[in-house]
Every structure is written in C-alpha cells, then in structure tokens.
Amino acid sequence: MQTYKTKSGEVLDGLIYEVFGYCNDTALETVYALNQNLAEYGPVLPAGLTINLPDGITTTAPNTGTISLWD
After folding, report:
1. Residue 60 domain-assigned (yes or no)
2. How many domains does the chain have?
C-alpha cells in the first residue's frame, strides 16, 4: 500500500487518474474502501490529507474502447 498527500483543490478521481493512469468505478470503490472517512470531505479534498492507495488496481482493466452515439 502507498500513501498520497493531497494538494489544494484536488478531487479523488483526478488523483486516481494521476497515480494509476485511469479512473473507473472499481478504482474509486477500492480507494473509498481503504479510506472509510474520505467521503466526509466532499468532492474537493483539503490540502495535506493523507490517503491510502493500493499498490495497483487490477480487478477491472481500464476502458480503452471508443463509444459512438450513432452506431
């Protein structure tokens, strides 16, 4: 497990994308499970908050497909 200290104005999905290169529901659920009180801070995290992150999130591969609304 690794830890991450937030910067002012960060949001969780952006932080996960920065660390893992993608963000999906599995990644968010995994991080929330490791940090039970994280949702209390709302969408914009305060600076200096220490968040526990897994070493990797491998249960679901990132979505690399293309979606077209007119298919």
Report:
1. no
2. 1
